[in-house]
Amino acid sequence: MQTVCWLVLFVVLLIIEIVTMGLTTIWFAGGALAAFLAGVIGFGITVQVVVFLAVSVILLVVTRPIAVKYFNQERQKTNAEGLIGHTALVIEDINTLKAAGRVEVNGQEWSAKTDEPDGKIRKDTVVVIEGIQGVKLIVREKED
Q1: Residue 111: strand pairing partners
Q2: How many whole angstroms from its chain centre is CA 67?
């Protein structure tokens, strides 16, 4: 009876993986399949559980980094994430303490602030976008 439970668990986990495509249950499906095979060979429930846990953890640790590397190749940055590293022009003085300042990048205006110690950058300065916080770009003066 336990052997059939492992097979059912394998199928359920496989279906969840197919539906979500999130690389979340495939490792445990492999463990359930190995436990099913251990049950077919004739090992007891204790050995089956140990095989399930061991194979699941080994698959998770060994293959997940490789799978994530190859599956995330197609991931595209959002428009905002794509701005990081680009240059922009300050069109309104940036004063982080007063929450003022705007930049223009790719023809679009963005609110901006800086992490510079004085928190100020003058109008018409070229800046580099370092990050995004909420709807504001985090910028620093571009070095010559």
Answers
A1: 102, 136
A2: 13
Q: Is 6 exposed, middle or buried (0-12, 13-18, 19+ CB in 10 A)?
A: buried
Give the residue from 69, 66, 63 showing the smallest Cα distance to 31: 63
Question: What's the CA gap between 8 and 108, in Å, rounded?
Answer: 54
Please tell me the distance from the alpha carbon of residue 27 to that of residue 29, in angstroms, as a whole number.
Answer: 5
Q: Give the Cα separation of 43 and 103 in Å (integer).
A: 68
Contact between 118 and 124 under an 8 Å Cβ cutoff? The reply is: no
Determine whether 35 is exposed, middle or buried from the number of CB atoms within 10 Å of its CB (0-12, 13-18, 19+): buried
pLDDT tens-digit series, residues 22-55: 777 888 999 999 999 999 999 999 999 999 999 9
**pTM of the entire predicted model:** 0.50
The answer to whether the Cα torsion of 108, 109, 115, 117 is positive or negative is positive
Number of other CB atoms surrounding residue 29 within 10 Å: 20
**Nearest residue to 111 (alpha-carbon basis) of 76, 135, 128:** 135
User: Can you tell me whether residue 130 is helix, strand or coil?
Assistant: strand
Token pair for 31: 């463990």
